[in-house]
Amino acid sequence: MLAAVESAGRAGFVPVSPHLVPATLFARRKHWAERFGIAPVLPMSRAEMDALGWDSCDVILVTGDAYVDHPSFGMALCGRLLEAHGFRVGIISQPDWRGAEPFRALGRPTVMWGVTAGNMDSMVNRYTADRRLRHDDAYTPGGAGGLRPDRAVIVYAQRCREAFPDVPIVLGGIEASLRRIAHYDYWSDKVRRSIVLDAKADLLVYGNGERAIVEIAHRLAAGQAPGEITDLRGTAFSRASGTLPADWTEIDSREIDTPGPPAVPVDPYADTTAGCAPTPTASAPDATLVPRASLRPRKGDRARTVIRLPDLDAVVADPVLYAHASRLLHVESNPGNARALVQRHGDRDVWLNPPPLPLSTPELDRLYELPYTRRPHPVYGNAQIPAYDMIRFSITIMRGCFGGCTFCSITEHEGRVIQNRSESSVLREIAEVRDTVPGFTGVISDIGGPTANMYRLACKSPAIEAACRLPSCVYPQICPNLGTDHAPLIDLYRRARAVPGVKKVLVASGVRYDLAATSPAYVRELATHHVGGYLKIAPEHTESGPLSKMLKPGIGSFEKFKRLFNEASEKAGKKQYLIPYFIASHPGTTDRDMLALAQWLKRNRYRADQVQTFLPSPMATATAMYHTGRNPLRKLHRNGEIVPVAKGAKTRRLHKAFLRYHDPANWPLLRQALRQMGRADLIGNGPDQLVPLRQPALGTAPASAAAPKGGAFRTQHVRPTRPVQRTRRPR
Q1: At residue 353, what are phi and psi to the nearest 5 degrees?
Q2: How far apart are CA 109 and CA 417, in angstroms?
Q3: What is the pTM of this model?
């Protein structure tokens, strides 16, 4: 063992320090190729390279999306950032993956390949929650489907290796990020190994990867071997099993999270806004601060401690160990206290360094103000790219989300620490959009981020924030340590509206209504000036079973926000409506839960024309529940809590039918289910009954399908976007 450790040290394994504060994102001396200047648009062909005077690219980014030179698209953001560091960056967009020749189009990259599936996971992009093939793709010219392969990161990496075998391959983007360890894959219904191994990549960058990608490019350009780059936050790599670095301590994950009984469930109907504490006063700055910690780490040098997760074979064979590994991965996700993780895959170890440190406001400002053209590459001509059309007049003001929703990829990918842009930077971008983006009519289509109203919200104590290991700052109630002051966001809205040439600034990002309800002034500002008739919010469900597994607040918080919103809209003289999102078949949901939701929808006169069925995305906590039937939000025990999971096609169809109770096509299925559930009293034509007794004649309009009169809402046809991976706007 000692010989192995010494060998590892000689091989250049340098441990990461979780407490190391990096230099600013733009502090490094630029690469020599900066002399070529800024490209009008990053080249996609040899002809464009020749026009720029390039004989080669230093970095070539391969992506499954059309190349849009806008900071909401990952390839543009990373490409312009590397360009700012002096590297010549080329783009290979949606290449034909059936052979290696399209990957040779720009020649051999002198530094590295950067490989991403694009702004969405390729499997989520190509298949529905029922595993049916989609025929459209919002990130493709004309919205055409089929221009990216399944598991695009693996396929692209293989072709890059075939094209130029000696060039390092670095993976990035959400598909790589969410597959960095052994993970359940919904589409093959099995546990797959880390994508680092399947793609045969040198490095993987996860989360917000700007710091890591810049450092990797500079080190590789300086001649460092990829296998020696082992000390960067937000990276994963593989190495021979059993080679622990010198003076490191390895801890078995089961020593940290000891089994125990499940906790008492929280009442989801409680008004979660009641737990919000007032802002501390100067005389008692810490009066409201409450220590929050879970799974307290053992004492020792955290910078040189690695936690060994159960290995691949163990998590494949044992659902409890899979749920345990998922739990520990999420517990060790706070950049302030996370430790390195390692997981054995046969004769290889996959090593995960702690998450990246958040970008500061000046760093984020400069990143979003790089010289993007904010439009698609000219090669696409006048072709429409739906994802671009959605965001071309939108402004990103922040990153991250501390909601911790178990089905969502935002927290897992961007982190829970909110990273904010400055007001001045946001206003400059609004002016830039006004002056340079074709078709601007004076309307900013969205000003927000993953969540519309988390701008400048943070823990009141940096020390508590760095120590906290809980998954959400707002569940089961809003943490008393969380600052919920919406005044900076209100001020930003007002200044954005005042930019000359701007007629209206809309908020299209989802609003976190439990947070918004703590600030009636924010709700008034929102309803009066920033809603175009409809406002998206996401209660997701009404019942305790699924809500407790989602980490979502109860319907009491929703009702409070609804009351504030309706009052503000009425005072402003506007007819505006809430558009709620709901999920069918989420882990923890029973048939009776869906029935109760359907009854709530009918009482409140909502009709969901399109609904979202739970889609188990890789690495999500809810996906671990779906796969294992266990609850990794609590201590795990072999005789512990069993989570009800809707897996069969018939059950999932029924849950979806409950959300669309008003659709005559669903009535036969609902009648059968209601009789089996002993609720035949809900079959009939009365106002309190869910479905009519008989089917309407073909071509007739069934009057009994109408929503009841009265109620808290006007009848609405809810049209949320198609079921997709919950993440930020295209990125």
Answers
A1: -75, 160
A2: 35
A3: 0.89
